[in-house]
UniProtKB/TrEMBL annotation:
Keyword terms: Oxidoreductase
Full protein name: SDR family oxidoreductase
A Pfam family per the record: adh_short
InterPro entries tied to this protein: NAD(P)-bd_dom_sf (IPR036291), SDR_fam (IPR002347)
Entry's family note: Belongs to the short-chain dehydrogenases/reductases (SDR) family.
Originating species: Streptomyces roseicoloratus
Gene Ontology molecular function terms on file: oxidoreductase activity
Signal peptide as annotated in the record: none
Length: 223
């Protein structure tokens, strides 16, 4: 079974649909119960909706207790609160704090809730949806500094969790889907369905596959 955060629309919804098409049962999570349930109904048999707010430890715990152990965890929930024309010297720190709360700390909380059970069972796949804006090899994007730093932090979390779970049967990787056409990025070149294939591929890597990588499809990218 797979659980996808932020799955009621955009890339998260497309990932849930792609995993469902590959034979997995999928838990569609969102902050709003109605949105999660509606998306699950639209996706069809094998999908269920659950409330999960990545900024709330209580919400995460309730979702974990209701769902139980999962085999695949996709951390997709994220926000972009800057307009792309910002500056690290002028961006309101409150905006950075809200961005980190969702994009980095939210993913961290969800991982702490679900990954230990994967380790106990000896199998699991964790995929974080990251971004090239947070890649040091590209150069962090200063136009959306809070977002870029949050994704750089998410990449660091990916590497740490991969190291912590090495040899347990759990693989942890980050995916850079590239500019994807969603509400967050209406002008993106890729459709959500195209980007979802890369996320699903990382979520279903074979035993002994790579862990601690930043990837798109089979291509491993520089951190």
């Amino acid at each position: 079974m797979a659980l996808v955060t932020g799955a009621n629309r955009g890339l998260g919804r497309a990932v849930a649909g792609e995993l469902l098409s590959r034979g997995l049962r999928v838990v569609v999570t969102a902050r709003d119960a109605g949105a999660a349930a509606a998306t699950a109904r639209e996706l069809g048999p094998g999908a269920e909706g659950r409330v999960l707010d990545v900024t709330s430890p209580e919400s995460i715990a309730r979702a974990r207790d209701a769902v139980g152990p999962v085999d695949v965890l996709v951390g997709n929930a994220g926000v972009l609160l800057e307009d792309g024309a910002g500056d690290p010297l002028s961006v309101p720190v409150e905006v950075v704090e809200r961005t980190l709360e969702v994009n980095l700390l939210g993913s961290w909380r969800v991982a702490q809730a679900f990954v230990p059970a994967m380790v106990e069972r000896g199998w699991g796949r964790v995929v974080f949806v990251s971004s090239g804006t947070g890649s040091f090899s590209n150069g962090l994007f200063t136009g959306s500094p809070g977002y870029a730093v949050s994704k750089a932090g998410l990449n660091g979390l990916t590497q740490m969790l991969a190291a912590a779970t090495r040899g347990t049967g759990v693989l942890v990787n980050a995916v850079n889907p590239g500019p994807t056409r969603t509400r967050m990025m209406p002008g993106g070149r890729r459709t959500a369905e195209e980007a979802a294939v890369d996320v699903a591929d990382a979520a279903l890597l074979p035993d002994g596959g790579p862990s601690g990588t930043f990837r798109r499809g089979e291509q491993v990218l520089g951190w």
